[in-house]
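PROTEIN DESIGN WORKSHEET
SECTION A - STRUCTURE
LENGTH: 115
TOKENS:
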């Protein structure tokens, strides 16, 4: 099983990025998928999640109306569209997949918001 994040980088405040989490050996359409982030010196926190049937999404209050989680079942990939980025969104972003008792993490992708 592999979850591989991509799409991170350096962006100015107010800008946008789209993160991708490509899964192999793991079917995202059958799994609860989430994005977490961890800033330096802080604990890892949940950013957004999407249920296995895609019918339910949840967001941290700090990103509501700015971030959108979505899934492409054909590509077996989960996305995180991030708009109106702020300096406080700077962190390493991780993808997590959960199905039953099995849980998998990606290696993370760095997002830096700075002018």
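SECTION B - SEQUENCE
RESIDUE ASSIGNMENT:
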């Amino acid at each position: 099983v592999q979850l591989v994040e991509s799409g991170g980088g350096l962006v100015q405040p107010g800008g946008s990025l789209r993160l991708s989490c490509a899964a192999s050996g793991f079917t995202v359409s059958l799994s609860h998928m989430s994005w977490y982030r961890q800033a330096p010196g802080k604990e890892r926190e949940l950013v957004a999640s999407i249920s296995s049937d895609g019918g339910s999404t949840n967001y941290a209050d700090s990103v509501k109306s700015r971030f959108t989680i979505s899934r492409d079942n054909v590509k077996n990939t989960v996305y995180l569209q991030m708009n109106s980025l702020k300096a406080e969104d700077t962190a390493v972003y991780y993808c997590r997949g959960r199905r039953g008792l099995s849980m998998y993490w990606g290696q993370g992708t760095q997002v830096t918001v700075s002018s």
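SECTION C - NOTES
The CA atoms of residues 44 and 63 lie 15 Å apart.
The mean pLDDT is 96.
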